[in-house]
Amino acid sequence: MRNKQRPHSIKRHLTFSTVCVVGVLMFVSWLLVYSEARHEINEVYDARLGQSAKTLALSVMSWGDLPPDNFTQSYTHWLNAITANAKDDDTTTPFGHPYEDNLFFQYRVNDALVAKSPNAPAQWIGTSDNPGFDMVTAAGEQWRTFLLVFTLPDKRQASLLVAEKEAIRQELMTEVSLTIGLPQLLLIPLLAVIVVVLVSRAFRPLGELKETIAARSVDNLDHIHVSQPTVELSPLVKQINYLFSQLNNAWVREKRLVSTAAHELKTPLAVLRLNAENALSATTEAERDNDLTNILTGIDRTDRVIQQLLMLSRVEQQKNTEVTQVDIVPLLREQIAALAPMALTQQQSIELEGRESLWVKGHPVMLSVLFTNLIDNAIRYAGKGASISVIISHSANTVVVEVIDSGDAISDEIKSRIFDKFFRGHTEKGDGAGLGMSIVKDIVEQHHASIMIQSPYFSDYGNGFTVTFPMV
Asked: How does it sit in the membrane (predicted)?
């Protein structure tokens, strides 16, 4: 047995995805900023090292073999004054900054160390005689160095090395990273809250739609309305309203069919029961035969009523189906062939006249019902020995189907009501529910066609039903 899959929450997925994507973008931006800051810090600090080396080089050129006598004493005094006056590593003093302890220089003439900062190692730390930047390890610390090689006025080779503790740069980079990264990190929970609020607000119309639909029932299929319509929800609301309309129409058709069936079948069933009781209590064979004949007649009428009700149901169901191009000639030929046996029982003749092919736009099933009802109506009411003709013709813009019979002309009263539901003009001849011609009118209207009655069709007799379709 398959496990029931947990419903997927769009709101939760959208919130989580947004926060994750923004978090990743923040992290990527932090990496880019850190990389650029690292590059800029190194550039600034390296430029300072180079500038310091050149400034010192210009000074040492006037020293000769040795720096002034008070050089070391003055330098040491300044560094001690910084230490004495600074409260911590971030405090500036009139003598400088405590960070100067992380800087030193060494001055060498030929291979002899001539001068250095008081905090510099006693041994030359340069790893080569190549000028430029380098990374050196001294006293267990990493130092960024810049070596400047130049010639003194007396042609001797001098080297000046300026060094800066690498930890200073790393500390600055760490502080820059934290300054940038921590606010972004703290913004992620705030962003999550904001996204949850915004998403919940954006999904409010969807929740309203859900509640509105939940309030609907089969007895209440009115159109739904959302107080805050959106571009995204409007097509959905429109489609739901369309489905509600279709469902409501189907529900109305079902109730109408049930009520019609109950109404139309009640009388013939009562008559059948009465005739059956009479047949059981008949005292003579003639009475029994008459009652049995009445029962057969009642069965035929009931069957006719059922057929018309089923036909009405089919027509109602086909109302919203798409139209196609239909060749009505073979369709008429098929319906005439199906109804010919019933015409023969009335000693009637039936014929089809017209072209071999004519096309109209319509529903094949509904057109079959239309022609069946017209021809069946002619057979039932034209009388014995009548002739029935189905004539097909066309003009530039229309296709015309005429069903003509040679029976008695229809009276004006019947003509005025012949398309009404449940109207039966000749109760003594017909056995239906009075739905046949109303179904014909419905189908004609659905095909944007027209129907006309001409009675009498000939000089003083006959009937003609003319249906005119738009040409394909």
From this structure: Multi-pass membrane protein
